[in-house]
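call fold(seq) -> tokens
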Amino acid sequence: MEDADMSCMDGDGDADIEKGRRFLELIDKQSTLQQAIASKLTRLITEHGWDSDAMRAELADLVKEHSQVTGEINGLDTGA
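ret:
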């Protein structure tokens, strides 16, 4: 078994593991944001009829944060 491929354990292995962990954290955060966005949109449509300035502002903040998380995920994917 001494000849087993250990290439994933070289110096880049730790970076890949950390990158993988960060990717999973970001995916979880992205999913949470998507759920929050869907919830806010549903409330705006069904309860407020788009008349809630506060709800629209919250939604805008969620969309902005979602875009930032998505950008970071894409950056991890391309190695940036």
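Residues 1-8 have pLDDT under 50 and may be disordered.
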